[in-house]
Design brief:
Blueprint (H helix, E strand, L loop, with lengths): L4 H31 L4 H6 L3 H24 L2 H27 L4 H9 L10 H14 L37 H49 L1
Length: 225
């Protein structure tokens, strides 16, 4: 009994794309890590680049493993590939459940992280400059309680427009904590969409790998009979 070539090369093509996507994620993440000046406050409260690097490496390794298993028709590699995808799928599902259940605790977690930067007057100049950049970008002031956290309110807290509610006075009244949380909520749908797409790919990869695994087993059984 011969192995279905369509399944074999479809799995190889799937894993090749999987490997390429891992290379792209890893390359972009390393580029951002090396060349982009990170904001110490957002890096502390929203660590993401290091996670993207780890995800890129894992995807590359799995893609290479799946390609080798498909081309060499190795049941061992295919089984290892299937188990790896299954573990990632379970972790992704668990993360989604935890995120849905614990979503109301995001503000408490973020508050705890940002409290490490208080009082602002005791922070190094680089941290204060990062906060000023953040205040200009998000049109906010201070971290948790607004402009009262500054001994001398910087120019970055000044309103750029009088059209919004927080700009009815000279300075922005909204703490940056609220702006960061709003930004996270706005990006949540994108994150959920990506997670759903990854879950579909994982299921597709598991089905193909197990199909090929079973076909190789049947072929080996016939050849040894």
């Amino acid at each position: 009994m011969a192995v279905n070539k369509c399944v074999k090369y479809l799995l190889f093509f799937f894993n090749f794309l999987f490997w390429v996507s891992g290379c792209i994620i890893l390359g972009v993440s390393i580029y951002l890590k090396v060349t982009k000046d990170g904001n110490q406050i957002t890096n502390e409260s929203l660590p993401g680049i290091d996670l993207m690097i780890a995800i890129g490496v894992i995807i590359m390794m799995l893609g290479f493993l799946g390609c080798c298993g498909a081309i060499r028709e190795s049941r061992c590699l295919l089984l290892l590939f299937f188990i790896s995808l299954l573990v990632i799928f379970i972790l992704l599902l668990a993360a989604g459940i935890v995120g849905a259940v614990e979503g109301n605790k995001v503000k408490d977690w973020m508050t705890t992280r940002l409290e490490t930067f208080l009082p602002l007057s005791d922070q190094p100049a680089s941290v204060q400059q990062d906060l000023e950049d953040l205040q200009r970008e998000l049109q906010c002031c201070g971290l948790l309680k607004g402009k009262s956290e500054w001994n001398t309110v910087p120019a970055s807290c000044r309103c750029n427009s009088t059209a919004t509610v927080q700009c009815q006075t000279t300075y922005n009244e909204t703490p940056c904590l609220e702006k960061i949380i709003d930004l996270m909520k706005n990006n949540l749908q994108v994150v959920l969409g990506i997670a759903f797409a990854i879950a579909i790919l994982l299921i597709f990869g598991m089905v193909l790998s197990m199909m090929l695994y079973c076909q190789i087993g049947k072929k080996d059984a016939v050849s040894t009979a």
